[in-house]
Design goal:
It contains 29 helices and 21 strands. The chain has 683 residues and is an alpha/beta fold. The termini are far apart.
Length: 683
């Protein structure tokens, strides 16, 4: 070995090797000497090429200055696996004959091409010594393109570190039910409230993407209650769920002042300005928000919340463009399906919640899908990279979530009556009062009342269910609109749904409408079908793949069937006997079901629907007035009839026909521009 013959080597007992000599010893001379019988001990050598990445360290020591728009000091370096190198380190290594570094206890030779690329990248960023929290976030979630194969490694101190590590932090610090919230949060909801609280503190927007049935609305209400006093929150939702928001707020946060801004009798600009000053939550619809955008844009909003945010997944449509004009300190989007067709949907939502943060749409899609699957599944994979920072995503299939869920989630969906429904309802009620005089015998009077109850229930379902006309169904019923939203959400998740109705003829119309609405064949299971045909429908539904729906008449399909392929059940109209509804839900919620079943009960507030709900819920003092089997029906006087069956005006959320038509047109435009109907999962 020539190096051992250097002058003084024998006397000192050691020789300092150059990089090249050390490399030769480890790769050539050493193995030969060992083969000749010598005891050769050389450092371990790694033949694996290390991955080069850029590292960004942030320093934000002032806890009083926190936010996505605040500046933090930054320092750049290159990282080769676990070896961090400054620009000076790279220059020194580049001058060596063989650039060796020690990594994981082994010596590694660095690639000179990678060293040159790292040196160029650091030189390019040498003048960038400060970045905002939002800019740092872009590097952390992979939205900035890196010149090195390993991308970016980001770390920090102070609030910047919290911003970067929030995905890990929130899982350890879930929020229990806050003051002012009457209910118990599940752990994932507590994590979501903690996540919302952090985003609020740094003035970042976000997308709360809990699966359908996991409770987006109460989660958001818990956050609003926790941060009450900061200013009013403007909630924009589809017409079908405005009533649900008001009802949920009354249930979970009764101490918060809620204003509903919707319908022909809504407040003027001057009146709304006064109402907003004392309000915690203002609820409106997408259509109303667009029509009143000038008024809403002039008011001061602490946060802007979009429920069923798929409504803006086409960033070019008028709804999305007009809503961007409404200023708010923080914007939050709620959706059960943040990705229906691809990453473009997610970009539209995130660009709304944090304008400019995620960059241009093409670059966002290209960066998150680079080298990955471009399908919806690939988009979901990319979504997970954002989870916990700009998006809070939980699904029923996650073991941690599933462990907390009951086997069945029962959900009450309030559905807004349309003007056409209200007019028909009042006309039937007036006719009943006029034609059921006290002079009639008990049985005729009872028959008239029962017939009127049936008519009122049909009107709550849809005007066409009562009038049996052939006019188009869309836009004429709050229940139908809500059903469309539920089915869209179920289909977007690749699941299956059962829809029960008491009226077989209406069930057939529903099946036809859902087929046209979704483009997927929907059948109706009813007593008029031969047994063989019914059996075939069940078999096809159970064995079908992908999304699907089956409409069933409550009488024919409410018992005896095994329909565990469905994970959602919709009770389109209500029946007085809760056991009948339970039997219908049990078609999906039974032995063999491997998923949590979500049951939706559709109710029109302020109508006979709500009286049925009260009966089913166990408020038996109402039963004596309205139960069909009750012998007291014939004894009701005019006043009692109006109380039992009449419209409760304070519970109705109405709009005039022109506005209703505009809402329908906008909804259709959004659906057509995307090639798929709007999803509408309510939490």
């Amino acid at each position: 070995m020539p190096v051992l013959k250097r002058p003084g080597a024998a006397r000192r007992g050691q020789v300092v090797l150059s990089q090249d000599e050390a490399w030769q010893l480890m790769t050539q001379t050493g193995p030969l000497a060992a083969a000749a019988g010598f005891d050769v001990r050389v450092p371990a050598l790694s033949r694996k090429k290390p991955t080069a990445a850029l590292r960004l360290d942030t320093i934000s020591s002032d806890p009083s200055v926190v936010g996505a728009h605040q500046l933090a000091q930054v320092r750049w370096s290159a990282v080769f696996d676990d070896v961090e190198l400054s620009a000076a380190d790279i220059a020194r290594l580049a001058s060596e004959a063989r650039p060796l570094v020690r990594s994981h206890g082994k010596w590694v030779e660095l690639d000179r091409v990678d060293l040159a690329a790292a040196a160029a990248a650091l030189a390019e960023r040498a003048s960038t010594t400060q970045l905002t929290g939002a800019e740092v976030l872009r590097y952390a979630i992979g939205l900035e393109e890196s010149p090195l194969a390993g991308g970016f490694s980001v770390s920090g101190t102070g609030w910047a570190a919290d911003l970067l590590n929030k995905a890990q932090v929130i899982s350890k610090e879930p929020i229990t039910s806050p003051d002012g919230f009457e209910g118990e949060l599940r752990s994932y909801q507590g994590e979501a409230v903690a996540w919302l609280g952090f985003l609020d503190s740094v003035e970042l927007g976000g997308c709360l993407a809990l699966d359908m049935g996991l409770g987006k609305t109460p989660t958001m209400l818990a956050h609003i209650a926790r941060t009450a006093g900061k200013g009013p929150a403007l909630v924009v939702a589809p017409p079908a769920v405005v009533g649900n928001w008001a009802a949920e707020a009354s249930r979970f946060t009764p101490g918060l002042k809620v204003v509903v801004h919707h319908g022909a009798s809504r407040a003027s600009a001057k009146e709304l300005s006064k109402k907003v000053k004392g309000a915690d939550i203002v609820i409106t619809t997408y259509g109303t928000a667009v029509r009143d955008v000038e008024t809403l844009a002039e008011l001061s909003w602490d946060r802007l919340i979009l429920d069923e945010a798929q409504a803006i997944k086409n960033s070019a449509n008028e709804t999305s463009q007009q809503l961007r004009r409404i200023p708010a300190r923080v914007r939050v989007a709620l959706t059960g399906t943040p990705i229906e067709n691809g990453l473009g949907d997610l970009w539209s939502i995130l660009d709304f919640t944090n304008p400019g943060l995620v960059g241009p749409r093409p670059a966002f899609i290209a960066q998150l899908s680079a080298g990955k699957d471009h399908s919806r599944q690939g988009a979901e994979t990319a979504l997970r990279a954002l989870n916990g920072i700009l998006v809070f995503r939980r699904t029923k299939s996650e073991p941690i979530v599933a462990a907390e869920l009951p086997e069945r989630i029962d959900q009450l969906d309030h559905c807004t009556m349309t003007p056409e429904q209200i007019g028909l309802y009042q006309a039937v009620l007036d006719g009943l009062v006029a034609n059921s005089s006290d002079e009639l015998g008990a049985e005729p009077r009872k028959g008239a009342i029962l017939a009127a109850i049936t008519a009122l229930k049909q009107i709550c379902n849809h005007p066409s269910a009562y009038q049996h006309d052939d006019r188009p169904l869309i836009g004429r019923s709050g229940k139908l609109t809500r059903l469309e939203e539920i089915v869209d959400a179920v289909y977007a998740s690749g699941e299956r749904v059962l829809v029960f109705t008491h009226f077989a003829s209406w069930g057939m119309r529903l099946a036809e409408h859902l087929t046209a609405h979704t483009g997927i064949e929907t059948a109706c299971y009813h007593g008029g079908l031969a047994r063989g045909a019914r059996d075939k429908l069940v078999e096809e539904f159970q064995n079908g793949e992908g999304p699907g729906a089956l409409v069933l008449s409550l009488k024919a399909g409410g018992t005896g069937l095994n329909l565990t392929a469905a994970s959602h059940v919709v009770l389109y109209d209500r029946w007085w006997n809760p056991a009948v509804e339970d039997q219908a839900r049990d078609r999906a919620w039974r032995i063999g079901q491997t998923r949590t079943v979500v049951s939706h009960r559709l109710v029109c507030p302020g109508t006979v629907d709500e009286r049925v709900e009260e009966v089913v819920a166990g408020k038996r003092h109402i039963a004596n007035l309205v139960l069909p089997k009750s012998s007291s029906l014939a004894d009701l006087d005019t006043s009692q009839l109006r109380t039992a069956l009449g419209l409760q005006q304070e519970s109705l959320l109405t709009e005039n026909p022109a506005e209703l038509a505009q809402d329908v047109i906008e909804s259709e435009q959004q659906s057509n521009s995307l090639g798929k109907p709007l999803e509408g999962a309510a939490g």
